[in-house]
Design a protein that fits this description.
By secondary structure, the protein is an all-beta fold. Helices cover about 0% and strands about 35% of the residues. A four-stranded antiparallel sheet has the order 1-2-3-4, with no helix packed on it.
Length: about 60
Amino acid sequence: MTLTAYDRPGIPRDPTFSQDYLRSRVSWTAMVERDAVYTVFTYYSYDAHEDRPLRNDPFGSF
């Protein structure tokens, strides 16, 4: 199952990653698998022109 959030920042594990310019954009996704130990999150940020996504792909969290 994949969860997708828009417009609001998530809580990335990397405190130096800033989620900017999220208006009407994907802010994070989570891939949840049955019986998996980890959930894989991907956080997104965009440049000022909102046309270039920047990604932070941490390994995952519990």
